Amino acid sequence: MYTEWENKKDQFKVIDLRQAKGNFSQGLFRQADQVPEGSGLQIIQSFEPHPLYEAMKDRGFEYHVEEVKPYEFHIWFYRSEAKPASGKKPFGPAALLNFPIIDKNLGRIAVEFWDETWNDERHYLSYEMRLILSLANAVGAGRYRQAARELVKAYIHGIDSRAFDDVFELIAWNQGIGFFSSQIGPSPLFGAYKLIKQEEAKGTSRDAIKKRLMENFGEKNQQVKVL
Questions:
Q1: CB-side neighbour CA atoms (13 Å) of 29
Q2: Residues 65 and 148 in one domain
Q3: Number of structural domains the chain divides into
Q4: What is the pLDDT, as a whole number, of residue 17?
């Protein structure tokens, strides 16, 4: 609880992200992973970074947030347990970082909309099911970049690849064989799916497949990255 470590927060390293460019999350997580149990970090951002909370909780951090003035949030993360990240959520919503560049209030709205959509505690459907639905919706809208990211997240989160078999069969049915052949087949989305199926056929372990997915279809892939 915050009251148990409030008197330590002035000793936390301060990281001001208000002028950060690009996807700063990986650099931030590398710093967070070095924080020992019983210490913490203080983040300053122009909007409340809801997506960051789950990623930090996954690493053993508690948090406390205050809006000290309009568009200036201070978030203190205290490491109550030093543990490695589970890796179940490999992509953060990096594209949200574009909105505060346009307008700070728009940035706040975008992050709150993301939180309303993806906060697990607020929904009837499981996180895995919502990823599958988001994948299918992204394909329908022609957003194969997003669809590929959702597929990778779903597999890393534990979805059986047979669920993807069903999804692609339905896509072929709804979109048509010609469209599937010319648009879906060459896409990074189908490339990620093929990698999973080919590696599973070889008997490759799930952990090894997850690693290959992130190597081939992670943020460095130009067809998948959003910043």
A1: 22
A2: no
A3: 2
A4: 84
HSE-CB for 81 with a 13 A CA cutoff: 8
User: Under 8 Å CB-to-CB from 38, ≥6 apart: which residues?
Assistant: 8, 79
pLDDT tens digits, one per residue of 40-84: 999 998 888 888 888 888 899 999 999 998 889 999 999 999 888
Q: Which of 110, 126, 109, 135 is nearest to 190 (CA)?
A: 135
Question: pTM for this structure?
Answer: 0.77
Q: Are residues 117 and 6 in the same domain?
A: yes
- Residue 7 backbone dihedrals phi, psi, to 5 degrees: -75, -5
The pair of structure tokens assigned to 189 is: 């989305």
